[in-house]
Protein 1
Amino acid sequence: MVDAPPIDESHIGETPLLRVEHPGVPCEVYAKPEWYNLHAQPYGGGSVKSRIARSMLDAAVAAGDLDDGTLVVEPSSGNTGTALARLGVARGYDVEIVMPDEAPVEKAEAIRTAGGTVTYAPDYEAMLDLADRRVREADAYMPDQYANPANPGVHERTTGPEVGAQTDGRVTHFVAGAGSGGTVTGVGRALRERGDVTVVGYEPAEPRHGIDGLKYVRGSRYHEPEIYAPDELDDVLSVPTADAYYEARRLRERYAGRDPTIHDAGQYDDALVRDHLRVDGEFLVGASSGGALAAVTRLADRGDLDSDDVVVVPFPDRGDRYAHIPLWDDYL
Ligand code: PMP
């Protein structure tokens, strides 16, 4: 066990809301930058997955599934593994993340830095089998974001109500990518309770090599994650990786030398939010954030958005996690 620095878990949730200009779209567009979860904590900012790491660990403690020293094992190629390693190790558990060989080196490094261990499997299917085997061998606990109701549950309890409150109830559309489906399912449930909100999910057009964070929804045995409820959504779009990259790059260019408007700083203040908006002066969002903007463009092109609509998208993570993909080839 490494000595993990303490983490202030109160810096999870109540993330800011940014107003973003989105040419070609006739209405207001807002984005919720989820990298502010744990932004000023050891090892830097988190992602949307900080929320579910906390809720899944809390649920496991409440159910009596976790004792001091329990090994936590999760198959993950990305943000969930990083978030579980940071929170789990800080809480005193051993955390082992099983990754496919092709997983980004940045994510493996982040897991090890947080004190977790990384076990590699040759491919995605083998990763799932190996994680199951590790749970049996080591009598470990697997949170399993694809089946755990604490995943959509935390979005229904926190992310969704934040979107409603931060737009003063004006939100008319929520548009988000489905990886596990937790974000779009949970936020959708919360917003629907508040009134007439159109909830649109998008899936990657190229599931096996597509948008990071989403690419394994189809074509694997997680084809239909148990917690993903596409039948509750008003629409599900298919977004090509190229469109997601295009929108992320267009956003970076649009905000060269100026900041998006901080509509609501969430639990922070404007100065702090401004401090963590940029990476080396650039406004870089992750590929799935670009994908959400691409889905919004699609809705506008179809004539589904009016001038008085208010669209909200999540920005699940910041773009500096993606040096390994062609997203920022010209920059990183
Ligand atoms: N974007 C990124 C960068 C992610 O890591 C994930 C989750 N893997 C998602 C989007 C999708 O979120 P969810 O699992 O809640 O559908």
Protein 2
Amino acid sequence: MIKFDQVTKRYPGSIDAIKGLSFQIDRGEMVFLAGHSGAGKSTLLKLISGIERATMGNVVVNGQNLSKLRASQLPYVRQHIGVVFQDHKILYDRSVFDNVMLPLDIIGFDRRESTRRVHAALDKVGLLGKEKTNPIRLSGGEQQRLCIARAVVHRPSILLADEPSANLDRAYALDIMELFKSFHQVGATVVISAHDETLMADYGRRIIRLAHGAFAA
Ligand code: ADP
Ligand code: ADP
């Protein structure tokens, strides 16, 4: 469960990126986050994942009030969250396999179970057989799948994706959406942002629309 209670985020020396937002996303829900560039979508996702902290108000994730949590406790909350970053954050000096292994290394899984899970995640996104490949050799769509495998390999209860279909043509984008739907179907809470609402329309899910950090009409 994700709950925002009167949340404001002000970046140093900047305007309020999020302005007094209150809403709730239920466990197991799949929701879209829409709005133009600069509307506050990334910031909202970063507040959920604890990458950014609220300036005012409370952000509650899986029963933990992130606004009151000590920084040292944040990693435990993050273990239950998977993030597909807008800028990918792929490490091009290591293989596809090692990129997906990264979150498990951080958590400290044993090697055998980790290897099994990395294979399961790569299988899920259709990249099995490319384990040893350097990510630079993957197509744009494949790189996006790599990011998704890395985001789900630790079986997070919450999966966040920041504009995962940006820069992909429509067929690829729909593929990616189906992939997120499959994680939603096995129980994950899924939040996906996009500035293009046409992709969302087909899914009949709740759409949270933002404009200038507030709910859009
Ligand atoms: P979106 O994801 O919808 O494009 P963002 O959350 O990235 O929106 O940005 C919302 C607003 O916050 C914008 O005005 C942006 O310029 C500002 N902003 C985002 N990140 C930072 C930052 N690190 N420092 C200062 N301002 C920022
Ligand atoms: P595993 O046995 O490793 O869980 P599965 O075949 O069950 O593999 O799942 C394939 C991929 O989907 C794995 O990467 C797994 O982490 C991911 N996955 C399975 N269930 C969930 C879930 N509830 N939330 C997020 N990811 C999941």
